[in-house]
Amino acid sequence: MKRNSHPCPPWLWPNVLGLDAPVVAVAWQWLFARVFGADLPAVFHLILGLSVWCVYLADRLYDSIRAPSIGSQTDRLGFTQRHFAGLVCVALTAAVANLFLIIRYVPRSLILTGLITAALLGVYYLIRLKGNARLASAAPREILCGMIFGLGCVIAPHAFLAKGGWDYSFAAILLGLVCSANCILISVWEKEEDIACNSHSIASSPSRLIPHLAHALTGLIILAATMAFIGPWQIHLAVCLSALSLRMMLHFENRLSKRTLRVLADAVLLSPLLFAFL
């Protein structure tokens, strides 16, 4: 029996529905706003969540078109193929609702920043459409995706700050790095599926980064832990905990199923929730 014919367990539903990434994004946006004292209206959390959800649904719908109808697939890709029409309707509805919220509540200055982020997202999709092994190695979409994700989490709180200094920018960069590490690890754990779907990733292409990924994560852990004594400790410690969790997952990857690794990869990025009462 093919893997995708098995019903998804309840703990896998947030992943196959694409809800994990929006929750992670809102959690980090909330932490940045709280730590830096930005008076961010609650509607911006809804706008960010819908934006991330639409992007992720579009990404999965695109993958489901390119992927074979049978064979090696991830759970979320199999789910997307089985419910393609319904997910298209959901994505369009969410996009229309989000556009209304953006026009109604987002100031012009922030819309300009959002358009810059959208342009970077366009570059990401251009790499995907044009993608080949050489381009995937020279300009890894996983790193670009992680940095764009991090940028999307911090632009709204920054717009409501009286002044954003180097500490805000550095914390945002660290967030982008741990998100990039998340994307890279997922590509490693889904390498076989990407190859089967003719989707080039950093893991399926010649890359000098993959063999040194464990060391890179260790370096990020040390850097974030050190910065916790200098800058906004809650954010740096949250990055440190997420990076440490990813490093432990990489160490014990042979003892965990791919399903578990995929879900945990996003779950460990929910470290901001640990600071809800601190």
Break the fold down into its secondary structure elements and pairings.
Elements (H helix, E strand, L loop, with lengths): L12 H4 L3 H16 L7 H24 L8 H8 L1 H22 L2 H23 L2 H6 L2 H19 L6 H24 L1 H6 L16 H15 L5 H19 L6 H10 L11
Helix pairs in contact: 2-3, 2-8, 3-4, 3-5, 6-8, 8-9, 9-11, 9-12, 9-13, 11-12
Describe the structure.
The chain has about 280 residues and is mainly alpha-helical. The chain has one domain. It has 13 helices and no strands. The chain has helices at about 15, 20-35, 45-65, 75-80, 85-105, 110-130, 135-140, 140-160, 165-190, 190-195, 215-225, 235-250, 260-265. Helix 2 (about 20-35) crosses helix 8 (about 140-160), helix 3 (about 45-65) packs across helix 4 and helix 8 runs antiparallel to helix 9 (about 165-190). It is globular and about 50 Å long. Mean pLDDT is about 85; it is low at about 1-5.
Please describe the structure with a list of short key phrases separated by commas or semicolons.
278 residues, disordered N terminus, mainly alpha, single chain
